[in-house]
Design goal:
Layout lengths: L1 H14 L9 E6 L4 E2 L2 E2 L9 E6 L2 E15 L8 H9 L1 E4 L11 E5 L11 E14 L4 E6 L8 E5 L14 E2 L6 E6 L11 E5 L6 E3 L12 E5 L18 E6 L9 E7 L21 E4 L5 E2 L7 E6 L2 E6 L2
Antiparallel strand pairs: 1-4, 1-5, 2-3, 2-5, 4-5, 5-6, 5-8, 6-7, 7-9, 8-9, 10-13, 11-12, 12-16, 13-14, 14-15, 15-17, 16-17, 18-19, 18-20, 20-21
Length: 323
Amino acid sequence: MKKIYAIAALAASICLPAAAQEINTLYVAGAQGQIVNFEQLGNWDIVHPVEVPLKDGKFTIECEGLTAIGVSTKKAMTTEQDGWDIWSENRIGPSQTLTASNLGLPIPVKGPGKGELKGPDILTPWMGDYVIEITADLKTMTVTTTTPEPEITYYLYFDGNWNNFAVEKWAFEKELGTDNVYWLDCTDENKIGPTDNLNIMRDSNWNNWWTSPVRPINLQGQTMSWVYKLTQNPEGQSIPAGTSYTGTIKIVVPQEIGAGSKLEVTFYPDFMDHDSSSVKEIELDDSSESEYFNLQGVRVNSVQPGSLYIKKNGSKVSKIIVK
């Protein structure tokens, strides 16, 4: 009879959720170059993750240059699919998106589990140095940072620049006098060729982004509503083979960022006049004759077709493309 009870007790312990079992170590993996507890991460190396022991009733994860990490209660033995399944099903993360407003506050932990119970990766609102503290019972986590919130920047990402995060030439410029209107000029030197994927990304991480729900996208000046974190891409290419795009892109950012938010995007077939934050007044004598400067503010004597310049005519300053 004792043997039956012992077997029943063992079976019950196996069926307990991971959070109810005694967890003494958490495992951290993420993008290469990030520092976790003074160790540099390999590129999502789930076989050799950084081990974080339970200490003083909590798990403390100190990160440098953090944008995204995964935290699991088990490490994988292989990088094959079965290894990723084990890592993913034992992953824990915040039950809500990390934002500036919930930094420093306890956030319920989601996971481990399968399907809807599965914990997400930890995505920070901006790149920086963070401390993540997770309670021993895996119920809550608190995320703090010593890195001040940077000025928000929106970037265009596509198949040709996935490996070049935060490339300045693909950064949108804020329209002067507005909080949510941005512009990007795509010149002959900075044009978009055929591509499957196009995304508008807030800052330089995967916490907030939008993409078109249809393909190909409209390149003729029709305003489109792009979907926040679209879970399933449509079929086809965003910009088809044999096509490229030059012109001005305008985006209007929603006031509330999150699930269900829509980004208004317009790809104009021509270059549009716009007063953006990159254009600064250049102190010169007032004159009716037009003068031209490169984007660094250096005066040029001759302009090249297809290039972007700052034009000054008297007291009026504008950004133009020379055709």
